[in-house]
Every structure is written in structure tokens, then in C-alpha cells.
Amino acid sequence: MFLLTALKISYILDPNLPKIPIPTPEDSDQLKTGRKKQDGDELLCRGHIFNKMSDYLYGLFTSKKFSNEI
Predict the structure, then answer these.
(1) Whether this model's pTM surpasses 0.70
(2) Rounded distance, CA 44 to CA 8, Å?
(3) Chain-centre distance for alpha carbon 48
(4) Which of 59, 57, 67 is nearest to 3 (CA)?
């Protein structure tokens, strides 16, 4: 958790984090930027969590799509 906080991506694990709506052509630039940042942070967070797992645990959790599910 310390590493994720230092990287400013620990917010991804917040169970109350609102989901960004599905993209539409009418989306504002701010919403597009927020979606891109959250998607990138989610990927980075999952990678750091998986990096610390043993092979056995890695195999069990790779099917999870979101970091807070892991």
C-alpha cells in the first residue's frame, strides 16, 4: 500500500470510487482525460499487485479485471 500511495494510485483500491461512464461521442475533454488516467492507473496498480504475488496466487487472480477485486 505504501508503494501505491507513493505512486499516487492507491485511490484505485477505494471501494467507493465512482466508475467513469461508458465512452460516448459527446464526452468532454475532461471526462476523456479522467477516463484515460484512471484506466492507466488501474493497469499500473494491478501490475504492482501481481508483481508481489507468488506464482500460485498469480494464477488464481489473473482473471480479475479490477485491482480492488484482487
Answers:
(1) yes
(2) 11
(3) 10
(4) 67
Confidence of residue 12 (pLDDT cuts 50, 70, 90): very high
pLDDT at residue number 37:
93
CA proximity to 70, closest of 20, 38, 52: 52
| Eight-class DSSP state of 22 | P
Amino acid at 25: P
Cα–Cα distance, 61 to 70 (Å, whole number): 6
Task: Look at the block and give the residue holding cell 493497469.
Answer: 43
C-alpha cell at 14: 477505494
Closest by alpha carbon to 40, among 67, 59, 18? Answer: 67
Look at residues 5, 10, 6, 2 and name the one whose alpha carbon lies nearest to residue 42. 10
For the chain, the structural domain boundaries read: 2-13+27-69
